[in-house]
Amino acid sequence: KQEVTQIPAALSVPEGENLVLNCSFTDSAIYNLQWFRQDPGKGLTSLLLIQSSQREQTSGRLNASLDKSSGRSTLYIAASQPGDSATYLCAVIDFQGAQKLVFGQGTRLTINP
Amino acid sequence: DGGITQSPKYLFRKEGQNVTLSCEQNLNHDAMYWYRQDPGQGLRLIYYSQIVNDFQKGDIAEGYSVSREKKESFPLTVTSAQKNPTAFYLCASSMYSTSSYNSPLHFGNGTRLTVT
Questions:
Q1: CB spacing of A91 vs B43 below 8 angstroms
Q2: What is the mean pLDDT of residues B28-54?
Q3: Is B113 on the interface with A (CB under 8 A)?
Q4: Distance (Å) of CA A35 to CA A3, A90, B24, B67, B102
Q5: Do B50 and A98 touch (CB under 8 A)?
Q6: Confidence tier at B111 by pLDDT (50, 70, 90)
Q7: Which one of B40, B50, B109 has the shortest CB-CB distance to A43?
């Protein structure tokens, strides 16, 4: 059974720093990996989707990488801003025959002004 | 604007009562999903539907029921059989194709259900 882990559970950094969030998964036979952002009391917003054949995706200050063989993905945030404060979740679709995501527990990120 | 609407935002019910959560999307998406989120835990899949009039159980379907009579709507009923129904419920949708799963999920803003 696929398991997704995100460490650390919480992270606090000063504004302007570059930072990396980590995601690991136990079964490397994934179809894709997605990174989401969740603000308190809100739904999830899709940030980046990396297909299994890709190594990375970029959107603005965000860069997500994928290493299937080691079961890892990272989300790199450049020049962090207070507005980046949120919970970041990663999720994978594995080859179970349906478009079902398996989520990590998330990393709660706080950017201090 | 296209999107997913969940209503109500907050819902309070007495133990033993069934309650239905609404989810409507105008994105013309084929697939719809219900997830449950508890503090300190990731999202867990309750039910999903890839096409009208068809739906499948997710990982934690016991005590829940759904219907998919229209493409735009996927209501979730939390029955009295659900032992711990208090949670944050999230509805999502995506394009679906048997040849491609590379369509990102779009989420609604959730319904927070409290059962006392």
A1: yes
A2: 91
A3: no
A4: 15, 4, 24, 29, 13
A5: yes
A6: very high
A7: B109
